Amino acid sequence: MNTSYETAAALLPLVGGPANVTSVAHCMTRLRLGLTDRSLVDETALRAVPGVLGVVADDTSYQVVLGPGVVVRVTREFEKLTGGAAELAARGEELRHQQRTRNATPAKLLLRRVANIFVPLIPALIGCGVLAGLNGLLINMSWLPGVTPALSAIASAFLALIAVFVGFNTAKEFGGTPVLGGAVAAVVVYPGVAKVTAFGVALSPGQGGVLGALAAALLGTCVERWCRTWVPATLDVLLTPTLTVLISGLATLYGLMYAAGEISTAIGTAANWLLSTTSAFAGLILGGLFLPLVMLGLHQALIPIHTTLIEQQGYTVLLPLLAMAGAGQVGAAAAVYVRLRHDTSIRTTIKSALPAGLLGVGEPLIYGVSLPLGRPFLTACAGGAAGGAFVGFFAMLGDKVGATAIGPSGWALFPLLAGNRGLGMAAAIYGGGLLTGYVVGFVATYAFGLTGGAGGRFRSRARA
């Protein structure tokens, strides 16, 4: 039995059939559909399909939350049922462009493009991060000394060359030739740059990191598009790539790497200052505000910051703080489950979404439980704030907790943890933060999140 096929086949008629679908794509947890007429969607029946954890409608797509792993398989089957991604993309491009023009603000467009550059890199960051954590554990325990050098090479290679992938994706996203974007960004990590002096200082390979690579590829795309406006067609294949790499490469060496390096250093300094100086307060604010950022899609702006910190320090100290928001959400959902014991619909949704929430996938609980009910969303934020304050307090004492990769949170973040006092201390502090978030989210929601009772008002809002 092909469960993915059955899910896709059940979804298709509920979104208006093949004729209503203009595009099919997916992110880590959601099937993203472009639809001609959203009034044809049967949202009530859609939410009732087994495996559907929630639905989200934004300015550019209609999104069905299916969870990590599952969404990839269902998307493939959905594409087959609708005639293939290429045909859909061609048919829906004009509609999507019109919709973006009407509804997307410059800020939303920028964040979406940042996400399109960095999100495809997350699987590799996760895989390499887990291997780096395993390798660190083996080294600390003095186990398998003949294996650890190989593991270190495998875990570190992608991060050493991540600038190339960022450049490739940047050029692709902004309308340039992807391989030229990668070629220009490769200058940032090439060992030979150590022989180049800019502003009286010798450059270092990797200086500027992903920010320098992004800037280099953006400049390369601009140069390439400029060249194509005047280079004769007969010479285009020769001159355009040559000028693109030459002009952008020189600008990267003698300007962008230095500037991006200063910015990257400032980001690292600011993050360390934030935790060592404002400690628990910083954790409280970051943990409490992350759910609203996720709801609005603004959390994508943090991806380059996380990546920069991982490049500089080996881990990002911000992710464990932000992950506490998911703990508050889990605690709030558990309280709703206990309080609304007669509401079969909302309890079924919670049972389906809670395992994903424990593993750090928060959208099903956000859109299926806390947001529809209203107050539990706020009390979930309170739980996240408490967990963030817990982790931040220990940072003030000098015990930093970081993540060697971005993407997972919740329990799934444990294999990626690192810290300045060792893995054991980092895991203990992070686990204590999760527990704090669970408890405060539960208590706050149980006491204040459903003060109107467990009657029909909440049930009707949960199904809205």
Protein traits:
single chain; about 475 residues; alpha+beta; four-stranded antiparallel β-sheet; 18 helices; 8 strands
Detailed description of the structure:
With 464 residues, the protein is an alpha+beta fold. 68% of the residues lie in helices and 6% in strands. The chain has 18 helices and eight strands. The strands form three sheets. A four-stranded antiparallel sheet has the order 1-2-4-3. A two-stranded antiparallel sheet has the order 5-6. A hairpin with a 2-residue loop joins strand 5 and strand 6. Helix 11 packs across helix 13, helix 13 runs parallel beside helix 17 and helix 15 crosses helix 18.
* Broad structural category: alpha+beta
- End-to-end Cα distance, whole Å, is 33 Å
Q: What sequence of helices (H) and strands (E) makes up the elements?
A: HEEHEEHHHHHHHEEHHHHHHHEEHH
Spatial ordering of strands, largest sheet: 1-2-4-3
Q: Can you give the helix content as a percent range? A: 55-70%
How large is the radius of gyration? 24 Å
Number of helices: 18
Shape: globular
Overall number of strands: 8
The pLDDT mean sits at: 85
Largest sheet: 4 strands, antiparallel
**Strand percent estimate:** 5-15%
Catalogue the unreliable spans.
85-93, 453-464
What is this entry, summarized?
By secondary structure, this protein is of the alpha+beta class. The chain is 68% helix and 6% strand.
Helices, strands, pairings?
Blueprint: H1 3-14, E1 21-26, E2 30-35, H2 43-48, E3 54-57, E4 62-65, H3 70-82, H4 85-103, H5 106-118, H6 122-140, H7 148-160, H8 162-173, H9 178-189, E5 197-198, E6 201-202, H10 209-227, H11 233-296, H12 303-313, H13 318-339, H14 344-358, H15 363-373, H16 375-396, E7 401-403, E8 417-419, H17 423-449, H18 456-462
Antiparallel strand pairs: 1-2, 2-4, 3-4, 5-6, 7-8
Helix pairs in contact: 1-3, 5-8, 6-7, 8-9, 8-10, 9-10, 9-11, 10-11, 11-12, 11-13, 11-16, 13-14, 13-15, 13-16, 13-17, 14-15, 15-16, 15-18, 16-17
